[in-house]
Amino acid sequence: MADEGNVISDLNLGNGADTEPAAGIVTQYVKDLSVENPNAPQSLSWQEQPQIDVQFNIGARAIEGEMHEVELKITCSSKSESGTAFVVDLSYCALVGMRNLDEGQSHAFLFAEAPRILFPFARRVIADAVRDAGFSPLMLEPIDFNGLYVQQLQAQAQQQADAEQGEPVGHA
């Protein structure tokens, strides 16, 4: 027979303390935005189909206690045979609060979920910046941050497995 006193005691362990896992965006902001239109006004009348290059990177760092900063860095450039039409560099950030998450959960939130939340806002900033530079707004395609995160974890696991097996000594 269970001791009812222990059951009641176990239910009251929190005593008002918040012990549930929680994570969320506290605030979002543009940390850095650079728009270059190096060949204006000539570039505004170029007729060639430009090559659009989009690069992105995700960074995260601890700020203090339960607060972290997540940075979504996106660089977009438009180039054609005539030259560079525009380059936009954006660092779009969020202050993220996390409490009672294990390391795996917090890493996944910082590098997959938070960027997924930030991306639509960063996408709008880039579209507006390109439009303000005199071009049609650049509407970036959605990015599957969760899928990319899982791929990166799998690649790291494979590299670790390869390293543990050792490298071949010579070539045949």
Would you kindly provide a written description of the structure presented here, covering whatever features stand out?
The protein has 172 residues and is of the alpha+beta class. The chain has a single domain, classed as Bacterial Protein-export protein SecB. Helix content is 34%, strand content 35%. The protein is built from three helices and four strands. The chain has helices spanning 4-11, 103-132, 145-165, and strands at residues 22-36, 51-64, 67-80, 83-99. The protein has a four-stranded antiparallel β-sheet. A hairpin with a 2-residue loop joins strand 3 and strand 4 (83-99). Helix 2 packs across helix 3. The chain is globular, with a radius of gyration of 24 Å. Mean pLDDT is 87; it is low at 1-13.
* CATH topology group: Bacterial Protein-export protein SecB
Helical content, roughly? 25-40%
* Strand order in the sheet with the most strands: 1-4-3-2
Number of helices: 3
Structural class: alpha+beta
Radius of gyration over C-alpha positions, nearest whole angstrom: 24 Å
Q: Would you tell me the overall average pLDDT? A: 87
List keywords for this structure.
four-stranded antiparallel beta sheet; Bacterial Protein-export protein SecB; alpha+beta
Set out the fold topology.
Blueprint: H1 4-11, E1 22-36, E2 51-64, E3 67-80, E4 83-99, H2 103-132, H3 145-165
Antiparallel strand pairs: 1-4, 2-3, 3-4
Helix pairs in contact: 2-3
